[in-house]
Amino acid sequence: MVGHKAAGVAVIGAATAYSYSDCLKVEIDLATAKSLMTALSTADNPLLNAPALFPRFADIRAEHVEPAITARLAEAKAGLEALEHEIDATLAGGETPSYLFLADSVERLGELVSGPWGAVGHLKMVKDSDALRAASDAVQPEVVAFSSKMSGSVALYKGWCALRADTAAWGALSVAQRRAAELEILSGELAGVGLVGDQKARFEDIQKELAALSTSFSNAVLDATKAFSKVITTPEAVAGLPASARAMMAASARSRGIKGSGGDEASAETGPWVATLDGPCLLAVLTFADDASLRETVYKAYVTRASEFSGDDNGPRIKRILQLRQEKAALLGRASHAEVSLASKMATLGEANALLEDLRAKSIGPAREEHAALEAFAGRPLSLWDVNYYAEKLKEVKYSYDAEEVRAYLPLDSVLGGLFGVVS
User: Fold this and answer.
1) Tens of pLDDT along 103-128?
2) Which residues, including other chains, have CB under 8 Å from residue 97's CB and lie 6 or more apart?
3) Residue 166, exposed/middle/buried by CB under 10 A (0-12, 13-18, 19+)?
4) Which long-range contacts link 391-398 to residues 24+ away (Cβ below 8 Å)?
5) Does residue 30 surpass a pLDDT of 70?
6) SS3 string of the chain?
7) How confident is the model at residue 303, as a pLDDT?
8) Band of the pLDDT at 406, cuts 50, 70, 90?
9) Cβ distance 66 to 135 under 8 Å?
10) Among the listed residues 190, 182, 179, 194, the one whose alpha carbon sits nearest the alpha carbon of residue 339
């Protein structure tokens, strides 16, 4: 890469020796050098050169995001335009696009963008950073715009509808293929394919704003999760926690540079320990920690993340999301967002509500009985942060079950070996 940068510099430097009449040639040379450097920057981009099975997560950096997504969007846009022209030409010729042609084309075009974009989204969830977040935010509007354009493609919608209208072609499809085609048609309708003019423009604006709100909502929750930490220095405060949990919490202390009173590195045995809101630590504290005040602190911090009680309040975002979803539903001729969401699912809104009510009616009695039995076992009324703890204690008494003992029989290597052995 250094050599290619030097080549670009050489082109620029040579421009100083050119006469005014040579400017056009210089511009062409600069464009060529820029194109070469862009090609080289994407040639080894892990987001563009992922193996067939899994993305190269360990190699992906924030600086890979924008060039990769930009390149894939350009390719996907060109592909969609070509596909639309081909569908229009096929229909104009009185022919019906085949199911395999439509389905395969949609799958390939979608994967061009969803592949690298999905890898970026996963990394944001598990290894968030300011640089990665900024890189993702920079390209998200274009990703949303392409997704809306493809979902709402009139040519694709007409192609699927023509397939359904062709009795012979439709009759030759399997039940699964017909269902897939019906869902593609419905997807187009829910993407606003029938909207025009101002309604279409407003629908697209809503889609973009909803995507931005979803991202900011998730970022606020993630920031609040990362912001909380409670340093624990006394062994009594971590009593009841299994060795694996104490080791995890000591590792959190070391990662933050927190040492013991004598300057010793944090250890599972002597601490210090750091409680966080990360899933494994949260579950361990709520399930095993004997210290009720620790359980309460962690529980309350978790359930009030990104609320009016702490951090970046998601309340206004929730209100805005609900407003936009209702407006979107109205544009699509639906009564509510619930109708939009369930339109492509097996159940209707009425059926879903009936199922939930049936579950509530049948489970509320047994749930109350179980909670009463748990409080009788504990010998006192239970708060929400007590339930997991006493449920685990009751399990140990009734079934002689010890999660930490079971863990010894399920090391990661053995579990992975068994998993791949089953599917091989």
Assistant:
1) 999 999 999 999 999 999 999 888 88
2) 87, 90, 91, 159, 162, 163
3) middle
4) 392/287, 392/288
5) no
6) CHHHHHHHHHHHHHHHHCCHHHHHHHHHHHHHHHHHHHHHHHHCCCCCCCCCCCCCHHHCCHHHHHHHHHHHHHHHHHHHHHHHHHHHHHHHCCCCCCHHHHHHHHHHHHHHHHHHHHHHHHHHHHCCCHHHHHHHHHHHHHHHHHHHHHHCCHHHHHHHHHHHHCHHHHHCCCHHHHHHHHHHHHHHHHCCCCCCHHHHHHHHHHHHHHHHHHHHHHHHHHHHHHHCCEEECCHHHHCCCCHHHHHHHHHHHHHCCCCCCCCCCCECCCECEEECCCHHHHHHHHHHCCCHHHHHHHHHHHHCCCECCECCCCHHHHHHHHHHHHHHHHHCCCCCHHHHHHCCCCCCHHHHHHHHHHHHHHHHHHHHHHHHHHHHHHCCCCCHHHHHHHHHHHHHHHHCCCHHHHHCCCCHHHHHHHHHHHHC
7) 96
8) confident
9) yes
10) 190
Q: Is 360 exposed, middle or buried (0-12, 13-18, 19+ CB in 10 A)?
A: exposed
Q: Is 171 exposed, middle or buried (0-12, 13-18, 19+ CB in 10 A)?
A: exposed
pLDDT in tens, 293-335: 999 999 999 999 999 998 799 999 999 999 999 999 999 999 9
For 391, the token pair is 């449920």
pLDDT tens-digit profile of 38-95? 444 566 899 998 676 788 899 999 999 999 999 999 999 999 999 999 999 999 999 9
Q: What is the pLDDT of residue 42?
A: 62
What φ, ψ does residue 345 adopt, rounded to 5°?
-110, 175
Angle at CA of residue 321, ends 318 and 323, nearest 5°: 110
- The length of the chain in residues reads 424
Q: What is the mean pLDDT of the chain?
A: 88
Residues 6 or more apart whose CB falls under 8 angstroms from that of 239 comprise: 289, 290, 291
User: What is the rounded radius of gyration, in angstroms, for the C-alpha atoms of the chain?
Assistant: 29
Per cent of the chain over pLDDT 70 is 89
Q: Taking the model in full, what pTM does it have?
A: 0.79
- Tell me the average pLDDT across 398-405: 82
Q: 350 to each of 233, 340, 355, how far by Cα in Å? A: 54, 13, 9
Kindly give, in sequence order, each residue whose CB lies less than 8 Å from that of residue 302, ignoring residues fewer than 6 positions away: 277, 282
